[in-house]
Design goal:
The structure holds 3 protein chains of 3 kinds. By secondary structure, chain A is of the alpha/beta class. Chain A contains 26 helices and 11 strands. Chain A has 3 domains: 195 residues, MetI-like fold (Orthogonal Bundle), CATH 1.10.3720; 132 residues, Periplasmic binding protein-like II (D-Maltodextrin-Binding Protein, domain 2), CATH 3.40.190.10; 167 residues, D-Maltodextrin-Binding Protein, domain 2 (3-Layer(aba) Sandwich), CATH 3.40.190. Chain A is globular. Chain B folds into 2 domains: 219 residues, Rossmann fold (3-Layer(aba) Sandwich); 128 residues, OB fold (Dihydrolipoamide Acetyltransferase, E2P) (Beta Barrel). In chain B, strand 11 and strand 12 form a beta hairpin. Chain B has a 6-stranded mixed β-sheet, sandwiched between helices. In chain B, strands 13-12-11-14-20 form a 5-stranded antiparallel β-sheet. Chain B is an alpha+beta fold. Chain B is built from 8 helices and 20 strands. The longest helix of chain C is centred in the first third of the chain and has 30 residues. Chain C is 72% helix and 0% strand. Chain C is mainly α. Classes of the chains: A alpha/beta, B alpha+beta, C mainly alpha. Chains in contact: A-C, B-C. Chains A and C meet through helix 1, helix 3, helix 4, helix 5 and helix 6 of A and helix 1, helix 3, helix 4, helix 5 and helix 7 of C.
Chain lengths: 665, 378, 271
Amino acid sequence: MKKNSAFSRFFTVLVFLFLYAPIILLIVFSFNQNNSNVVWGGFSLHWYKELFHNRIIMRSLYTTLLVSLLATVISTIAGTFAAIGFYGLRRRTRSALNTVNNIPMVNADIVTGVAMCLFFVAFFALWKDFALWVNSVQSLFVLPTRLTLGFPTLLIAHITFNIPYVLLSVSPKLRQLDKNLIDAAQDLGCTWFQAFYKVILPEIKPGIVSGALTAFTMSIDDFIISYFTAGSSSSTLAMTIYGMTKKRVSPEINAISTLLFVTVILLLAVINIREAQQEKAAARREAAPSATVAEMAGSRPRRTPLPVKAAAVAACVAVLATTAVGAFQNTRKPMVNVCSWGEYIDEALISQFEEETGILVNYQTAESNEALYSLLKSGAGDYDVIVPSDYMISQLIEEDMLEKLDYNNIPNFSLIGDQFKNLPYDPTNEYTVPYTWGTVGIIYNTAMVEEPITSWSAMFDDKYAGQVLMFRNSRDAMATALLYLGYDINTTDEAQLRQAAELIADAKGRGVYQAFVMDEIFLKMEGGNAAIGAYYAGDYLTAVENNPDLAFVIPEEGSNWFVDAMCVLKDAPHKAEAEAWINFIASTEANLANMDFIWYASPNEKALAEYPAYYEELYGEPLEQEVYEIIAAPAEVLERCESYISLPKETRQLYNELWIGLGIQ
Amino acid sequence: MSKELIRLSDCVVKYDDEIILDHLNLYINDKEFLTLLGPSGCGKTTTLRIIGGFQKPTSGDVFFDGRRCNDVPPHKRQINTVFQKYALFTHMNIFENVAFGLRIAKVPEADITRRVEEALEIVNLPGYGKRSVTSLSGGQQQRVAIARAIVNRPQVLLLDEPLGALDMKLRKDMQVELKRIQREVGITFIYVTHDQEEALTMSDTVVVMDKGNIQQIGTPEDIYNEPKNAFVADFIGESNIIDGTMPEDKVVKMYGKKFPCLDGGFAPNEPVDVVIRPEDIDIVSPEAGQITGTVTEVTFKGMHYDIIVDFQGFKWLIQTTDYSPEGARIGVKIDPDGFHIMKKSQYSGMFGDYSSYSEEYDELNVDPDAAEGDDEED
Amino acid sequence: MKRTKAFTIPYVIWMAIFVVAPIIMIVIYAFSGADGGFTLSNFSTMGDYTVVFVRSFRLAIIATVICLLIGYPVAYLLSKEGPRFQRVATVLIMLPMWMNFLLRTYSWMAILENNGLLNQFLGLFGLGPFQMIDTQGAVVLGMVYNYLPFMILPIYSVIVKLDNSLVEAAHDLGANSVVAFRRVIFPLSLPGVLSGITMVFVPSVSTFAISTMLGGGTEFLLGDLIEQQFLGGAYNPQLGAAIALVMMVIVVLCMLVMNRFGEGEEQAVVL
């Protein structure tokens, strides 16, 4: 056969380079000293050490491995039996079933995911009615009425999309089988089962193994289907990463991915080398026909050596055991499900709370208020405590989705400043305890603009064409335009709103905007990829740590100030634990820790006042007044600012319509 | 025969350390039906592939019509091949398969239609053009493969075990058919097979090969009647091969007795292999026999009996129409033309004893390095 | 093996519940209003999103074509290498799947940024900076990058199984390498090409996340649109189901039309 020319080799190498360049980059930056994935700060194993203390990553890694292993084992067994069953069917029936079998493979992942999500939620609704009825007619046992998306549904989804791959790799092996094999085995005295075990199974083993491997790979790599079926209580590594890509992928993820990747490479290398050696040995045996009896005995068909088998079995047992223990403990221990925003808590607080109270915290994040609302509505989110923003709170109260709090259980509520109580979203303060507050403003790169930015006009100015980042959520984006036009940010006037949308559309048409972003703004502003972007004050302070050229301004036209508050969902299964958590977070210590970590202002009066001292003690240098004022805007600034209130339904629909018209997500 | 068309000169093929062809010399005449015959792994297919241009010899030269053609790629040779498993293009119908070569040669469309039909007629598949390849039986696919090759009017047609996949009856028919086609198109056929009967039936010339060497070249009659060594004798038909000596010309000595024969030209008392074909042995009464033995096994074969007879510990196969019961003491008589005397060779002692009678040919693995180059050419 | 038929029963039940029933749910939702009654309004509102449909299909087609143009030669060249090289190479093609695709795409963000590695590199030669991220080109690149292995592997697995004597037969009948490729190898590798196209096109047209990450929020695709209706900012599962349904139908139609080209090839090709 002709060998490939140097040119074609070069082409192949180029393609491989294309496939591996991003991976190499990821691996390299997992050893980076700082947390950037663009700027090299020196070699360090820091993130590998951090990794093992990051409970969110470790827990999602555990979920990923567990669901992948379980799904692989179950779908391999089920798929193999199904393949054998298919093999015995008549051609017609078989091809009909094969078509159905192919659906999960041919269908787009998102359709499969969405379909399963809808199905589970519908099933849960039916189940609730059924369980209530069962519980009402008898008293021997009590059926749980409230089922939610979680690990079981995730596992079911994974099994469902894995079986077809197993089936597809086992079936050809069955077709290659000599149809008389089973007969021959039975003729020699085997029962049907023995024949299956001793003859069929070894013959189709390569198919089963490759099916299992494919299934495992698919499970590990899957994101989309998991995303729609895992609910809030379990999160795979891919889902955790997805949550992070919105903001900043912490280098610990690079580290864990590097570890996984290197493990797989090593495993594959070992397998490959072993196979190559076996092939060589086999070739040698063939070459020497005068093989002695001893050598012949050595040339038995290839088998997995015992240690490998034992290791595989041990691994499976270990995983199953930990699951069992874990599940047992989880059911025993009280717990609370919390949903907040990305990088919005000092994670040490979670461990501290768990130690102090013995209540386990399942900490989840959502992307935006709107996404949180969808999660709650679709049944994908099964939380006790959520931390929505003001306008979303009023909408949730309106739709009767929140539970009233028992403030007797939350003594720390008294520490909250009076100006943060009885706010318009919760006028009688029955549902909420404020978490943080902050302002919206413009972040800009002083090295990239000529004069300081002072007005919202910068968001619509041709001068900065291609350099401006606009909000990717309708409420905030429209607010920038409304403020610039001098209108109320809570306006319901259709003409004013249309004018604001027109302004954004016009600027978009003129190429002012580089992109519409949410937390991606960190990457872009820190990297100096964009000059101007509207975002939240606390996030500016995080960004400026990585790029000192950045500056923040609350424009002269005024701005939005917001409060995020903790609330408990209606019928939350862990209300007492939820209130304990809220009380803990409302304490002065927790507020100080949080403020230091996330740079958002605390509603706890004492904490807010003490923070500069706390900072000085912690870092040995005084907190600059300027920074403090960005965290906690002074009264004269707040005067210019206004908070969002929940808009009436018609206005919300108008927002939606205008937003679609802009062609932005 | 006519003029020489193809010559392989001192061709060697090696893979790593393994010698596939060992200094092979061979020429092939125009319009002859030449068969390369030998067990699997003997190098016959490699020889064919060298002629077809699919493989280059490690050393040595290939001449076509007097010109060296080592470096001429297959598509520029006036040679076409019928492949072992036909290698028909399943994505084309029969017509397109046959027309493939013509289209590439940019033959005008009208000619293509005519020539394809002609070719299909030659292989007895007229009007099959529209059908799909997969709808055909093995024998029909075979014919399409032949049509696809001959339609290009090559000077040489190479056939690589083309009948291997067919059943017995079909093979016999196709043998006759192939011979007819060869006469009709009047070109050189180079045919590879491991089936001696096929080789003897169809060929003008048979080339017997083993371990990368040519063992004998000759007409089918020559090969059968005058095998050059024990390998050829055993591979072509059934043979009893006995150690003997030649005390003088036309006299062979074995079992301590002298027998008249027709061969000569050996050194006095030279050790030789004596080949006696099973059908050349007459069974007579023990008294009338030149030597006597005991019948140990009798098998009814329809037209004759296969009888295994023990002559002083060496078992012979005799094919006869006369029945002799097991255990009977019989005498045998062999006419002088029944003896074929061969020089001793590396194969001496390996074949021709029916002590463990089996119709199967056992391929013996002997280190190829031990095989000496004893190329022969006629 | 008559008694083995019984083995199908559990899986058939499983498929009925977890494959067929969910798809029926999609259909039901697609034809329901927010109040649960029957309506066609979901399909009429979809008109607002025509631009998204067009964009999704256009980008997916471009990505598929590029994958084919890169993937086919790679698969073909690979099949001509030695067995050891082939084994290592096929593993190397699969291997990136072990690093999450979101992360790899995120890595592309760092490469393509205005101030990213590629622009910095080009800057060394006094070129650029070029606007690469937040463009349709970047989205297509993301698709090509993520789904290229799904094009290479099926094609490779078909080519590598091609009977070499067919190629030799073509040479024998006078075809040079180019003609042999065009007339024999390529037509015979079509089943692999078709399955590669399916395996690249379907995830490309329905992807989400890639477009958000590389397209700057303005190049959103059908996948993003559907996700927005379920778990994103615009809660409207009925509309989401309707979009998913329409997308599914269009994809199935595309596949049917395409399989017409490969008529008679019922051979399913997988990794």
